[in-house]
Amino acid sequence: MSLEKFLHKAVSSWMSAEGPDSDIILSSRIRLARNLRNHKFTILFSNEEAREILLKVQEVTRQGAFYPYGDMELLEIDEMKALEKRVLVEKHLISPQLAENSSNGGVVLSEQEDISIMVNEEDHIRIQCIFPGFQLMAALERANAIDDVLEEKIDYAFDEQLGYLTSCPTNVGTGLRASVMVHLPGLILTRQMNRIIPAINQLGLVVRGIYGEGSEALGNIFQISNQVTLGKSEEDIVGDLMSVVRQIIAQERSAREALVKTSNIQLEDRVFRSYGILANSRIIETKEAAECLSDVRLGIDAGYINHLSKNILNELMILTQPGFLQLYAGGPLRPAERDIKRAALIRERLKLDKRDSEEEIL
Q1: Is 180 known as a binding-site position?
Q2: Burial of 88 (0-12, 13-18, 19+ CB in 10 A)
Q3: What is the C-alpha separation between 120 and 52, in angstroms, rounded?
Q4: Whole-model pTM?
Q5: Is 27 one of the annotated binding-site residues?
Q6: Average per-residue pLDDT for the chain
């Protein structure tokens, strides 16, 4: 498989498209947790009951109920190889928990990969919609529409006082988890992030790494999401998160402007040193690659670099993960081999962008 074909098939629509405020907000995600009435929660149910739930969701998919949202297909986790599951995790299409506990698990994926419905993860059903840029309300509308389709066919576990019932008490109520993936190099470089994170937490929000709970904030990329799901409407939860994120956007832009104004040559040097490492390295580890990609993306946004795609951070942060590297290589790789393959893939990707830019000029 050539690199061009690999990129075409590997990158989801939200990674390659631009949205509002996409210089800072890489993506917006809505996740709805749902369970079926008269069925034990996943921590207690039998394999037979899990299979029954999977088949119910599969039947809804086969009936074409999701037709307005494009072709959608249910994939059974049990039938996937370990590498295939890892790639889906790296693309944010399934959770690590679903990949690891695969007995009668499944995922319904849209052709554009902006919709995924996990089956038999922590809850019976988890609906996820991802949009590029800052589009939380649009993602909420889409998730609610998918939820309505399922609720017409499946009887949910719902309480008039508590709302939707979930395996984890923190999700009871709306079952909603709204999040944005943000790129905040300005706040990191100006050393403001350590002050901002506690303030965000006090507002009932949480800041996590690129793959959510327990993950590291590689390349200055963070996930910011709500913690409260009970006692508020979905619109209020999303509205509160949007209000805080707008303030973070303003602070990040202010930090970037200050860096350009007070440390212009130092910032430009940092950007091009990182570009040089990416363009020439023969061996590069995940963390160093993420840091350099963050610098280069900042350089693109600041106008220092104009021959690379703005989406390069989104793409290469996914394409350089261990699962993708091994898929690209056609088989398992030891850590040292992955570092070599990662460097080669980045060099080739940068050459593609440079070539396309030169062709546009001609």
Answers
A1: yes
A2: buried
A3: 11
A4: 0.89
A5: yes
A6: 89
